[in-house]
Amino acid sequence: MEQRSAIFDYQLHQTLIQTKNRDKYIKSIMSAFDFSAAFATTPSKFGFKSQHRVSTRRVRIVASSLWPNTNSVVSPPSPGESNGALEVNGAVDKSYSFLKCDGSKTVHAAERLGRGIVTDAITTPVVNTSVYFFKKTADLIDWKEKRQFSYEYGRYGNPTTTVLEEKMSALEGAESTLFLASGMCTSSVMFLALVPAGGHIVTTTDCYRRTRIFIANMLPKMGITATIIDPADIDALEAALENNKVSLFFTETPTNPFQRCVDIKLVSELCHRKGALVCIDGTFATPINQKALSLGADLVVNSATKYIAGHHDVLAGCISGSEKLISKVRSFHFILGGTLSPNSAYLVIRGMKTLHLRVQHQNSTALKLAKLLETHPKVQRVYYPGLPSHPEYALAKRQMFGFGGVVCFDIDGDIMRTIKFVDALKIPYIAPSFGGVESVVNQPAIMSYWDLQRLEREKYKIYDNTVRFCVGVETYEDLKDDILQALEII
Ligand SMILES: Cc1ncc(COP(=O)(O)O)c(C=O)c1O
Known about the structure:
Layout: E1 7-11, H1 14-17, H2 22-32, H3 35-41, H4 43-46, E2 58-62, E3 86-88, H5 102-108, H6 137-144, H7 159-172, E4 176-180, H8 183-194, E5 200-204, H9 209-218, E6 225-229, H10 234-243, E7 246-252, H11 264-273, E8 277-281, H12 286-289, E9 299-303, E10 317-321, H13 323-336, H14 342-352, H15 355-374, E11 379-383, H16 393-399, E12 406-411, H17 415-424, E13 429-430, E14 440-442, H18 444-447, H19 454-459, E15 466-470, H20 476-489
Parallel strand pairs: 5-6, 5-7, 7-8, 8-9, 13-14
Antiparallel strand pairs: 1-2, 2-3, 4-10, 9-10, 11-12, 12-15, 14-15
Helix pairs in contact: 7-14, 8-13, 17-20
Bound molecules: pyridoxal-5'-phosphate.
């Protein structure tokens, strides 16, 4: 049996046992460790009486759980449940008499026979393992036969990552979430899992460049073609649905970098009528600002590298949706890899605890900056869905709870004047990415599209004087003063 390394440490009081879940609880413990045998041989140590009464003896439950490597019906035990090994202080042979030499002790001592890992820590333990073991072959067979849950191998699951996935599902209102090593990995695996070879997808013009490249250059290798529409062009979507057997509509909303918004409710209705799935890349919004699934989308992808983790210290991506769809994506991931490391999972969990606070602050700062910039004579145009001048302002107000922390704007000038502005800023880093606590600024024409000639860039509406300002959690007044002094200089 694979040992799930999350370890629950319980004080089993009589009062706990007398709760209405008593029988279920006792049963789970009994089955966890072939308890009947242990009970028969050492009943006094466990202190159980026939009517399931338990003394206040400290009992350690090592949760073991099966992670299905198929679309299995077996699901992980919810926190507090366990079907794993049960050990009681003193019941374990700590002498390691079967480990005679240092070479064996260094490898196995204190681990092989049960670890005293403290589990009443507030934080989630980082389970740094690539492999989980089975105590005996019968446990392995039970897992294979889907009679019990366990983990087996790092590519198929990890307890720390499971916690993260459940947290994300709770936020997105999803049945299931899969975390992967990056946002790009997540959307690539999603396309491969859900679009059949030779299939057709619809997507939108403004989007993260690598996603565009994947759709344009890599999906055709599987014979998958795409119709690309303007984010607001519903007629074009209807025509694409009419003229093709569309498997999937994929779009960011808001989009990168111009923050165009797509009507999730409307496109979901139209796509579902034709049997097409809808997958929303909600990276710019996060589940704090937009609940794509409750608006009708089937799936929502997030580059957790951005706001979700929020500290510029980890790459991660995730996809949330129904158990049925996510298990399809998960099955592909089991083969393709792109596994999130447990350390990264921990960093994302930690970051997520302040997601709502950061996003609310960033929403508020960005909106104030957008309004300020719009009135400035050296700024030609501002792209921010919270401004009435934005083409999808009404829609954004309807489907979002906040407008996000990224403000794009065009400097009144050429590339050199725009560079001068960016270089004059003192607070934001000149860097790619966004969503962290530090403000970040760049010119998309240089940061993301420099390898293309200007005319090529302009095909994607990437102009030399556009600035993408991604606010961090610094105080608004400092960012405002910084932007104003930089505009003053140019
Ligand atoms: C909207 C959007 N989706 C996906 C990605 C890719 O995410 P990652 O960098 O985590 O692979 C990005 C990256 O910037 C993005 O902006």
